[in-house]
Design brief:
Belongs to the purine/pyrimidine phosphoribosyltransferase family. This protein is α/β, with parallel strands linked by helices. It is built from six helices and ten strands. It has one domain: Rossmann fold (3-Layer(aba) Sandwich). Bound molecules: 1-O-pyrophosphono-5-O-phosphono-alpha-D-ribofuranose (PRP) and adenine.
Length: 192
C-alpha cells in the first residue's frame, strides 16, 4: 500500500531564471504516481515550501525576475499559489488577492470554469478585488495544461486588473500550457 515517490531527475534542468534556480526547484520536488487519479504523475512541491532556505531563494528569485516595482498587487491561485503570493506580497510590501475555488468568496464575484490536467473546476475573484489599472503579478506552483492559469488571467482582467506577469515554479512543458497562454509571457523557474 502507499505510493512510490521518487525525486525528479535533476540533470540538464532548464528554466527561465537559469539553471541554478531550476536545479533548486528540481531537487525539492517529489513525483507521486497516480495522484489524484490513475495515470497522473503528480509533482509535489511541498518539500520546497518546507525548506526555509530554498523557499526564500525562490521567492527572492521571483521578485528579482519581475522587479519589485513592476507590480502593484499579487494574486495567488488556490491553493498552492496562496503560499507563494503571500510571501512575495509581504516581501515587497504590496497586497495579496486570492483567486479561489467556487463558493469560497463571500461577496460578488467574477467566475470562470475550466478543465485542468486531472479534472474540472471553477475559480472566482471578488469583483472589486483590484483597483482599476493596477498591475497584477499572478503566481501558482504548477503550469500543466494552462486551464487554471488561463481562467485566472481572464478573471484578473475582468475584475479591472492588468496582468503584469505570471510565474510558476514548475512548468510541465509537454502539456503545452505556455502555448495556450500565448502571447502572454510565462515565467517558469523549472520546465520539465
Ligand atoms: O495547468 P492546469 O492543468 O490547469 O493545472 C495546474 C493547476 O493544478 C493544480 O491546482 P489544483 O487545481 O490541483 O488545486 P489545489 O492547489 O487546490 O490542489 C496546480 O496548483 C495548478 O493550479
Ligand atoms: N501533474 C501535476 N502535478 C502537480 N500539480 C498539477 N496540476 C496539474 N497537473 C499537475
Amino acid at each position: 500500500m502507499g505510493r512510490t515517490m521518487t525525486e525528479t531527475h535533476t540533470t540538464g534542468v532548464r528554466g527561465d531564471s537559469g539553471p541554478e534556480a531550476a536545479q533548486l526547484v528540481a531537487s525539492r520536488i517529489l513525483d507521486v504516481p497516480d495522484f489524484p487519479k490513475p495515470g497522473v504523475l503528480f509533482k509535489d512541491l511541498m518539500p520546497l515550501f518546507a525548506d526555509g532556505v530554498a523557499f526564500r531563494e525562490v521567492i527572492d528569485g521571483i521578485i528579482a525576475f519581475h522587479g519589485p516595482e513592476s507590480f502593484d498587487v499579487v494574486a495567488g491561485i488556490e491553493a498552492r499559489g496562496f503560499v507563494l503570493a503571500a510571501a512575495v506580497a509581504y516581501a515587497t510590501g504590496v497586497g495579496v488577492v486570492p483567486v479561489r475555488k467556487a463558493g469560497k468568496l463571500p461577496r460578488a464575484t467574477h467566475s470562470a470554469s475550466y478543465a485542468l490536467e486531472y479534472g474540472e473546476a471553477t475559480l472566482e475573484v471578488h469583483q472589486d478585488a483590484f483597483t482599476a489599472g493596477h498591475r497584477v503579478l499572478v503566481l501558482d506552483d504548477v503550469l500543466a495544461t494552462g486551464g487554471t492559469a488561463e481562467a485566472t488571467l481572464d478573471l484578473v482582467e475582468r475584475a479591472g486588473g492588468t496582468v503584469s506577469g505570471f510565474t510558476v515554479l514548475l512548468e510541465l512543458g509537454f502539456l503545452k500550457g505556455r502555448e495556450r497562454l500565448a502571447p502572454r509571457p510565462v515565467h517558469a523557474l523549472l520546465t520539465v
